[in-house]
Amino acid sequence: MGPCFGTVSWQIAMATTTCARAPRVTKARGTDRRKFLAVSFLTLARPTVAVAEEATLYGPRGSPGGGLEAATFAGGCFWCMEKPFDRVDGVKNTVSGYCGGGEPRPTYKQVSAGVTGHAESLRVEYDPKEVSYEELLDVFWKQINPTQENQQFCDRGKQYRSAIFYHDEKQKEAALNSRDKYEQLGVFQGPIRTEIVPVTDFWDAEEYHQDYYKKNPLLYRFYRSRCGRDQYLDAVWGSGNH
Hints:
Layout: H1 10-14, H2 33-40, E1 69-75, H3 79-86, E2 91-99, H4 108-112, E3 119-126, H5 133-141, E4 151-152, E5 155-156, E6 162-166, H6 169-185, E7 195-198, E8 203-204, H7 212-215, H8 217-227, H9 229-237
Parallel strand pairs: 6-7
Antiparallel strand pairs: 1-3, 1-6, 2-3, 2-8, 4-5
């Protein structure tokens, strides 16, 4: 994302006419989500946060501590993954970030360009006494189209792949069993291509990505709808699951 904006803030860029001609929704090296939203939403609303790129100045996340455990999922756009997990009883914290790549301290500009190997991901910190990992897996499967490879809906590229990053062998076994269960159910009408791989360093995304659905609810709903996520989930699971 970003070629339509340069170094100016998204709020300022939305007021310009440099993006007046609608681009293609996708491109070879990944979807330019901010450009897509700027063009599509130009006459409807302006987001309220600036989007200057910033490097991650701290190290990767460690254990949550305090009796909590961590789960890490990739389901395409991380904006769309926070809300479903935030409303689960027993989930204490969710963080949008980058996982599955080798580049330290990746920025959003790098990840969205597909040059670091990371996937847009969500870290879920939860109390295992209140909610099980298996229950979180059920939430995960109901937010994605697992039959798509290196893509989720309108977002294309390996950085938008779906994945379960397991933290230990117990999570690995649960993830494999969960995948097999959903394949046997046949609800997705195709082979599941979601990766189940060991977790790597998880790097927090920039602050403007955190709780995006709260900061920009109108734009968030518009993006989900225009990207095709909600239509697919409604068709498979019925409304109200997202």
